[in-house]
């Protein structure tokens, strides 16, 4: 069964950058779409970005467009989320999860990781 471990969270100042990694184990990642999600304080979990397998089509939540970039390296069984110009509203626990082949945010994701904490503060 596919399992994920997330890395790369931390504390940054507004305007700073972080790169999150989502490492898959037990199963090859190349037939899965990978989504990044976040759970902020007092908020519901929300989808942030997703990247499909094969063609690499991507989706972004409106609030992160132009600031975040999702990518994947199937040879390393890893997906990434480059986050630039971070703002306090980006503070959250960031998770990755998967669904077969193509991103569809209306459908269920599985194989949730434990998350990595991102905090943006002066």
Q: Would you kindly provide a written description of the structure presented here, covering whatever features stand out?
A:
The protein is an all-beta fold and 122 residues long. Helix content is 0%, strand content 48%. It contains no helices and 10 strands. It has strands at 3-7, 10-12, 18-25, 32-39, 46-51, 58-60, 68-73, 78-83, 92-100, 116-120. The strands form 2 sheets. Strands 2-10-9-4-5-6 form a 6-stranded mixed β-sheet, with no helix packed on it. Strands 1-3-8-7 form a 4-stranded antiparallel β-sheet, with no helix packed on it.
Compile the SSE list and pairings:
Layout: E1 3-7, E2 10-12, E3 18-25, E4 32-39, E5 46-51, E6 58-60, E7 68-73, E8 78-83, E9 92-100, E10 116-120
Parallel strand pairs: 2-10
Antiparallel strand pairs: 1-3, 3-8, 4-5, 4-9, 5-6, 7-8, 9-10
Q: Strand count, sense and closure of the main sheet? A: 6 strands, mixed
Contiguous low-pLDDT stretches (5 residues minimum) are none
Query: Roughly how many Å apart are the termini?
Result: 40 Å
The oligomerization state is single chain
Helix content class: under 10%
Structural class: mainly beta
Element string (H = helix, E = strand)? EEEEEEEEEE
Tell me the number of strands.
Answer: 10
Short structural description:
The protein has strands at residues 3-7, 10-12, 18-25, 32-39, 46-51, 58-60, 68-73, 78-83, 92-100, 116-120. With 122 residues, it is an all-beta fold. The strands form two sheets. It has a six-stranded mixed β-sheet with strand order 2-10-9-4-5-6, with no helix packed on it. A four-stranded antiparallel β-sheet has the order 1-3-8-7, with no helix packed on it.
């Amino acid at each position: 069964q596919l399992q994920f471990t997330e890395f790369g969270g931390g504390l940054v100042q507004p305007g700073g950058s972080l790169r999150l990694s989502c490492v898959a184990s037990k199963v090859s990642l190349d037939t899965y779409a990978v989504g990044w999600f976040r759970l902020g304080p007092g908020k519901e979990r929300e989808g942030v970005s997703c990247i499909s397998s094969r063609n690499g089509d991507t989706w972004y939540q409106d609030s992160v467009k132009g600031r975040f970039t999702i990518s994947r390296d199937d040879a390393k069984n890893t997906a990434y989320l480059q986050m630039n110009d971070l703002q306090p509203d980006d503070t959250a626990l960031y998770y990755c999860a998967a669904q077969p082949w193509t991103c569809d945010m209306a459908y269920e994701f599985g194989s949730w990781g434990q998350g990595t904490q991102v905090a943006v503060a002066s």
